[in-house]
Each structure stands twice: as structure tokens, then as C-alpha cells.
Amino acid sequence: MSHEHTHVRSDGTVYTHTHETNPEHTHSHNHTQSKAVINRLSRAIGHLESVKRMVESGRDCTEVLMQLAAVQSALNGIAKVVLKDHIEHCLTDAVEQNNTRAIEELNTAIERFMR
Q1: Are 55 and 35 in contact (CB under 8 A)?
Q2: Could you give the C-alpha distances from 43 to 18, 30, 64, 70, 75, in angstroms and in order?
Q3: How many CA atoms lie within 13 A of 107 on its CB side?
Q4: Which residues contact 103 (CB under 8 A, 6 or more apart)?
Q5: Adjacent-strand bridge partners of 17
Q6: Are 1 and 23 in contact (CB under 8 A)?
Q7: pTM for the whole thing?
């Protein structure tokens, strides 16, 4: 089974790609914070668009860096919400089903996120 999703690069380029999902990945994804995450992502996207406009208009680099730090902080906050939601729902279900692969996948995701 495959999962298609879209990314927006920092330069504004949009691209879509597909991940093959593991057939052993059987736990459900009951994310209670999806609406909050989507709202936060929308705000971060808007903020990043405004930073892009700052660069296009030649704004001071210090101002741009400060705004990029704010966007980065917002993204970290979103990641915390996603991680907490995942632990409280998906990971709990996986542990109940003795699905150790879900823990391995979470560890891999955390490693990639923390680079």
C-alpha cells in the first residue's frame, strides 16, 4: 500500500511523492489533535510566506533571521503536538497489540527530526 503526500520547500517549490507503507503497520491512526495541527501548520505556512516576501523585498538579514527563528520555533511546537498525539493514541494501541515495529518507526522518525 502506498501513501502520497505533498511537501513545500523553503523556496516555495511544491512536490508530491509516495511512500510505501508497511503491511505490518496495522494500528489505527486516531489523531485527536489533527485540527489543531492543521491550524498551526496554516499559520506557519503564512508566516513563512511573509518571510519569503521579506527576502524578495530586500529586508534586513537580521529581521529575516529573527522571523525564520520564529517559524522554526512554531514548527518545533507543531512537532511536539504531533509526537504527543502519536504517543497517546497510536503508540498506545501498538503496545497493546505488541507491535514493536511501531516503536522502531517512532525512533527512526525522532532521529530524522532531531538532526
Answers
A1: no
A2: 25, 23, 17, 11, 10
A3: 5
A4: 91, 94, 95
A5: 5
A6: yes
A7: 0.66
Angle, helices 61-85 vs 34-56, to 10°: value is 170
Q: Classify residue 76: in a domain, yes or no.
A: yes
DSSP of 85-112: HIIIIIIHHHHHTT-HHHHHHHHHHHHH
Residue 101 within any structural domain of the chain: yes
| Mean pLDDT, contiguous 10-residue spans, the chain (115 residues) | 59 59 51 90 97 97 97 95 87 84 88 87
Q: Is residue 109 part of a domain?
A: yes
Work out how many domains the chain is built from and give that number. Answer: 1
| Distances, alpha carbon 110 to alpha carbons 3, 45, 107, in Å | 20, 22, 5
Query: Which domain range does residue 83 map to?
Result: 29-113
